[in-house]
Each structure stands twice: as C-alpha cells, then as structure tokens.
Amino acid sequence: MLRGLSAEHRSWPLASPFRISRGVKHSAEVVMVEIAQDGCRGRGESVPYARYGETVESVLQQIEDVRTALAQGASRAQLATLLPAGAARNAVDAALWDLDAQLAGTSVWSLLRLAPPQVLTTALTVSLDTPERMGEAAARLASARLVKAKVDASAPVAQIEAVRRAVPDARLIVDPNESWNIDLLRELQPALASFNVSLVEQPLPAADDDALEGFEPAVPICADESCHVAADLPRLRGRYQAVNIKLDKTGGLTEALALRAAARASGFQVMVGCMVCSSLGVAPAFLVARGADFVDLDGPLWLKADHDGGVRSHNGALQPAVAGFWGQAEDLAGADAAVGAR
C-alpha cells in the first residue's frame, strides 16, 4: 500500500468581519489535506489557531513531517502517536476517515455505527461590537432558536442586554473568550440570570481555572480554551459544568468522539463548536453534535462563498452537506441521490 498526500493553505474571505475579544477576522485561513490510495481520495480541513501557538506554516510543516508514515499506511490510531492534538492532526484524521469510507464503499457513520448526519439547530453568532450594533445584528437573527453573543469586559451588561432585547425568545450563549476575571464574573451573576442566559463560555483565561474551584454560578459555565481532549476532564470537575468539543482542539473526529463519551460519563453538558471554517471543516462535527446540549457550527455561514454542496442554514436549522461531500463513498452517494430523485 502506498498513499499520496497533499496539503495546502486556502483562504476563504468572510462576508463581514468576525470580532471577538482577541481580535477580528476578515477571512478563514485553513489547511486542506487530501490522501489518495487505490483510486480513492479522502479530504479533511483544519484551522490553525494562533491562540494555541499554531500558524498555517507550522501546521503544514507538522503534516509534512508525517508524510512518510502516512504514505506507508499509518492508521488513525497511529496518528495519535505521530501528531499532537491540534489542527494538523484534525485535517489528517478527517482525511483518513473519508478515505477509509471510500475504500470500504460505505460511510464514516456506518463504520462508526452511527446515524447519518441530520439537520441541527446551530447557534448563530453576534460578533463583538458596540451594544447598538450588536443589537442591530441580533435583530437580523430574530427567528433563530439559539444565539451566541461575543462579548468582552468593556460593557458586558449593555452588550448582552442589546442582544437579548433583539432575540427575546432564543436560547442565549454568552462568550467572553477569556476576557473576564473572577471578580467580574461574580458581579455579573445577577445580570446573567435576569437575561435568561443559558450558558457562559470560557469567561476566564484558561490559566485562571483555579479561580473557578468551588464557584457556584447562576448560569452553567462551559470550558472552551480549557478543554481540548478527554484527559483534560478530571481537572475541570468542580470548575465547569459543560465542555465545548471542537475538532481543531481534539485533533480530529477520533478524539472528539472519545471526549464526548468521557464528558457524558463525567456529568458534563456537551457543546460542539467550530472555528470559522468552510463546510469541509464542520462535516465531521455533525457526527459529534447529534444529541449535544448546544451546537455552534455556524463557521461556514460567515464565508462570502463556500464549497459547492456545503452546509445550508435557515434561521439556524443547519442542513448537512450534500451526499458524498465528505465521509461517504461516491458510489453510495450516487445511489442515495438516485433514490431521492425517484
């Protein structure tokens, strides 16, 4: 067995700027991997993330470093010993799952004995801005069932109030992206409860997790930057009530499924999220997100243009990509399409 490997940087312009407390994005900078074997090919995508010390160049180099092992047939299990959890491993892991489905003439979900991807209710994100502009942005999402507000420490009550006023009936996630401290978090508990916030995502810097020990929040707190893999869970008990599973943090679908199972067993609520990416980046996440307490997979919806056949959304009802886009053998996808046409 000899495999071919290609890895390249792709840039996807955004339809509008995406702002969080750490900065602003105008494009999604991703790494796309293709692995070919016996006339089949598997694809995967990841987002190198500066917060975790990654760049496009460093991720491409990590993939190059394992080229020989992959060419010689390294498995997904072996991949976990070759690359650390992160963007490089995610792209390769996704490509290997896709390739295995192609070679077997089946689908990734069949290999995993899971149900096919289904329509999910995803959060729609209001990016950080002035309270007035956040309210205007939220008003455009008035029919959404789940909304996430990106906030910071400058005017969090006004930011949350503006969004809540515009979407009075939606479940609301508040995401400070590590910009708060424990004193501000304590001070904001009455406001978070009064605005009927459902979840607060990573309010403190991950390095300050100790401050959450024994803290009893009015609203559940979700670990994002503090939780990457299943081995992180023991130190999160007593500090967080939920964890955000992202493929780019876990290093792919393989570890994401392990983290989900371990989180459920440990009593954590489960959120499944993504970076700002294309539909190829979120396709495997559909298999993790089924049954999650919160789903936040609107990354591709920020793009000016996406892959043909990618995910589609109507008021936050996120439809998976077309059959055969990722994770399903081409012959099987063609048969499914023919059945649907009859």
Task: Supply the key terms.
single chain; alpha/beta; Enolase-like, domain 1; eight-stranded parallel β-sheet; three-stranded antiparallel β-sheet; disordered C terminus
Q: What is the fold's blueprint, element by element?
A:
Layout: E1 4-20, E2 23-37, E3 40-46, H1 56-65, H2 67-71, H3 76-82, H4 87-104, H5 108-111, E4 120-121, E5 124-126, H6 131-139, E6 146-150, H7 156-166, E7 171-175, H8 182-194, E8 197-201, E9 221-223, H9 233-236, E10 242-245, H10 247-250, H11 253-265, E11 269-273, H12 279-282, H13 286-289, E12 294-296, E13 312-314, E14 317-319, H14 330-341
Parallel strand pairs: 5-6, 6-7, 7-8, 8-9, 9-10, 10-11, 11-12
Antiparallel strand pairs: 1-2, 2-3, 4-14, 13-14
Helix pairs in contact: 1-4, 6-7
Can you give a write-up of this model?
- The protein is an alpha/beta fold and 342 residues long.
- The protein has two domains: 4-111, Enolase-like, N-terminal domain (Enolase-like, domain 1, 2-Layer Sandwich); 120-319, TIM Barrel, CATH 3.20.20.
- It has 14 helices and 14 strands.
- The chain has helices at 56-65, 67-71, 76-82, 87-104, 108-111, 131-139, 156-166, 182-194, 233-236, 247-250, 253-265, 279-282, 286-289, 330-341, and strands at 4-20, 23-37, 40-46, 120-121, 124-126, 146-150, 171-175, 197-201, 221-223, 242-245, 269-273, 294-296, 312-314, 317-319.
- The protein has an eight-stranded parallel β-sheet.
- Strand 2 (23-37) and strand 3 form a beta hairpin.
- Helix 1 (56-65) packs across helix 4 and helix 6 runs parallel beside helix 7 (156-166).
- The longest helix is centred in the first third of the chain and has 18 residues, at 87-104.
- The chain is globular.
- Mean pLDDT is 95; it is low at 335-342.
